[in-house]
Amino acid sequence: MRGVTTRPTVRSVNGLVATDHHLATAAGIAALRDGGSAVDAAVTAAAVCAVTQPHRTSIGGDLFALVYDASRREVTAYNGSGAAPRSLSLGSFASGFPSEGANLATVPGVVAAFGDLMRDHGRLGLDRVLEPAIQYAEEGFPVSDGLAEGFVDSGGRLDAEAARVFGPRGRFPRAGEILQQPDLAATLREIASQGAAVFYEGPLAERLASAIREVGGAIGAEDLAAHETDRPAPARITYRGHTVYGQPPVSQGHILLEELAIAVGLDMKELEWGSPELVHHMVEIKKMAFADRDAYSGDPRVVPFEVSRLFDVRFAEARRRAIPTRASDRVDAGAIAAATPADTTYLAVVDRDGNAVSLIESVFSEFGSACVAPGTGVLLNNRLIGFSLEASSPNALAPGKRPIHTLNTVIALDGNSPRFVFGTPGRHAQVQTNFQLAVGLIDHGFDVQRAIEEPRWYHESGRGLKMESRFSEATRKGLAAKGHEIANLGEWAEITGGAQAIAIDSNGVFSGGADPRREGHAAGY
Question: Catalytic: which of 344, 345, 376, 433?
Fold first, then answer.
């Protein structure tokens, strides 16, 4: 079911790449043409994004990925998130988190994840896949409209070194002007020639730790040396005959899977798309899943929590029965039975061998901590503010602990083969937009581009419900009658994310879509 869209669906048979930036998509396609795998293309594209989209991501940020290996017919989860520095604790932020600063950075996990993804699934080598990113950092790239807007909106947050790096003319570049990052190019070149481990141990790691201390950060050499990428068992559920895989904690990807586990007992197809009834049910299901996250989810290395219990049939049935007929103001967590034990960029890639990658990377807020480690070009994340400062919370800040992440990715299999690869940036909107994408793609049979472009809703708290203005007046009035307090987001709201999606048809044709709400671009060959 195609519908009217602002851009055509991209179709190909040899490979397809959908990212948040056209230069990243082009680099990913080139990697596939050079004989690379879906992982080679994904890491190539992600590295280019880390250069061309510093307001969204950086090698000083975090990365999560799901990889489908066609030869083994299995999905592997990669958790490239870093821990809080060992010198920090709840007492370090007695007055609350500051708005920016290097002491808000957790250990960067992107580089280690690049190395581990390539070691497990790459064909081309780290030096080849980092080559386009190095070129764009060294020779420069034309600043996009989105990055130029980011400088206008958040340039005032940047520390002196970040302002120097991103404003070499004494001002921030405008759209179409060239931005070079020679320090970042040098750092990437060391990683490309010596391997990802040099970012965490050795002379480069020591220079990085020293530079972080210079700007007031807490990450030390010992914190970098202790970092490693996790490969936890991916979370999964069965939904309408599809096996839907998501990220396990510390990602909050389990929210999407719980939403689907509750929704599977409802006839979502019979509820008209965009109707007050469908939107109401989805919003109230979302509220329940977020309440359960707040009550139970934390770093599994510290907090004992079996995430699959949120998808248990009896638990989901109880949550489904509790869906109210009117908008709820506050939702309590469900009772789990005793155990028998800001900013971000997303990309999707498939290759001609049937491998698939769903990958997301981030520095959290726009420009992360707003600090660049001097001499390295590395923009630091501010993921530490993802912790709770309430000691009783399972997500409470502690030395060496990882915060719960909004970052999550999705792969849905039909039988043993990928059917859909999708995801979106957007902080807490991610699992809400992914919920809408899943219902659109699976229940309503939408073409990927239509699923991405359909109007979206976004819920933060209470009875307030933000909706893109392209929803019908009848839908808004119907939801208001159910007690929702409607706010207008405009026609295309970036707060709802910037999704990319790929569908794989039974005849082997790939169909790709990219979100006009940001600067998404899909291409195939």
Answer: 344
